[in-house]
Amino acid sequence: MSRLQKKKPQGEKRKRLAEGEDEMGVAVKSTSAVRPTQSVSGVKPERSLVQPGEETFITRAMEFFREVKVELKKVIWPTRKQTTGTTVVVIIFVFIVAVFLGIFDYSLSRLVQVVLT
User: Fold this and answer.
1) Domain segments of the chain as ranges
2) pLDDT for 77-111, tens place per residue?
């Protein structure tokens, strides 16, 4: 990915969209005469503890799990036959390495015994 194509952090993207820019940073005119912070009836909107640009833990966690779900849909899961085959290969390989290390350990212990006696 080139330097110009790198994705910006999610917070910056939301800030740009709130300021009236599209995803590429181009200014976009609002088609509505009412700003998002104004209400139609003239009643002021309630103030919340969370600022508009701020993300709470819950919203970040929900976004994370949505992204996890999307990524898991992209995974190509192995079939039962593939899983069984690779498991057998791993077990055989572990057995071969265990035998090799056992022989090597036995040989070294014999060599140390001969040298010390």
Assistant:
1) 8-29+51-75, 77-117
2) 999 999 999 999 999 999 999 999 999 999 999 99
